[in-house]
Design brief:
This protein has 9 helices and 9 strands. By secondary structure, the protein is α/β, with parallel strands linked by helices. A 3-stranded parallel sheet has the order 5-6-9, sandwiched between helices. It has a two-stranded antiparallel sheet with strand order 1-2.
Length: about 270
């Protein structure tokens, strides 16, 4: 089973729409249908009742939904720890430069706000909060956080927005905030989001046409296609950031980010 498949499945269950799920994940509807088909093949049962409008989970689908939510919660915790460590590195850099540094932790609400201040004791408190704060299992509302930022930070600031950016409708508010502040997007990813597991022969059904196709997921060509599709999604996100003049950094759970961070700051220093 693949983390991205579980995320798509849970969103499909929540949104009850192939088209809206596809739009959220920057996929085609047929790609969403293929991922659902692979899950159903693996579990040897129907997970979604496609005849109902809107679509509904079957009993088996409800069981998988609850299990998938638990898996995603533990998985997100790993990414949250990486994000917290990255922010702690930035906070230590603030001590060295004698900069003010603050913190906003958010989900679908503002969980914690620490106003910007200077000083070692303040930064150490901020780092303690970062490393020990347990983020609830909630969705991410980036527009809400950006609106709150605009209310509590008056002077122009450098803002590191650290997220996996699996969220909706945030590019317009992000563009507006970037006109007032210098926003840097930090995307947090896990390697398992980018690769399809090798599960042998899988029967895929196109939700739009009903056409069925047998795919060998263990074939290198298919794995390469899936990897390229995810790379394309990442590139689309990068281009969207560029279109609103926002610099971005990618950090992943499977490799160190310090060298990338140093290169990023060197790049910005040369450009200034």
């Amino acid at each position: 089973m693949h983390i991205e498949m579980l995320r798509v499945f849970c969103d499909l269950a929540d949104l009850r729409s192939f088209s809206r799920t596809a739009e959220k994940h920057l996929l085609s509807q047929s790609a969403v249908s293929q991922q659902l088909a692979q899950l159903e093949m693996a579990h040897k049962c129907q997970l979604i009742d496609r005849k109902k409008r809107p679509i509904e989970l079957t009993k088996a689908g409800q069981s998988l939904y609850q299990a998938a939510k638990d898996i995603l919660e533990r998985y997100e915790q790993l990414k949250n720890e990486l994000a917290a460590e990255f922010c702690a590195v930035l906070a230590f850099a603030a001590i060295r430069n004698n900069d003010k540094v603050g913190l906003i932790i958010f989900t679908d609400q503002i969980e914690l706000y620490i106003p910007p201040k200077k000083g070692t004791s303040h930064v150490l408190r901020l780092i303690r909060e970062l490393l020990h704060f347990k983020i609830p299992n909630k969705k991410t509302d980036i527009p809400l956080a950006l609106d709150y930022l605009g209310k509590v930070i008056g002077k122009r600031a450098t803002v590191f927005l650290v997220s996996d950016f699996i969220a909706d409708d945030y590019f317009r508010p992000l563009s507006l905030v970037n006109k007032r502040h210098d926003v840097i997007a930090v995307t947090v990813r896990d390697r398992t989001e980018m690769q399809m597991p090798r599960a042998g022969l899988i029967e895929f059904e196109d939700a739009e046409t009903g056409n069925v196709r047998l795919i060998d997921s263990s074939q290198k060509a298919f794995g390469e296609y899936y990897r390229k599709q995810n790379q394309l999604k990442a590139e689309m996100l990068y281009q969207q950031f560029r279109s609103i003049n926002i610099d971005s950094i990618d950090i992943t759970t499977d490799r160190p980010y310090i060298n990338d961070l140093v290169k990023f700051f060197h790049m910005r220093h040369k450009r200034a």
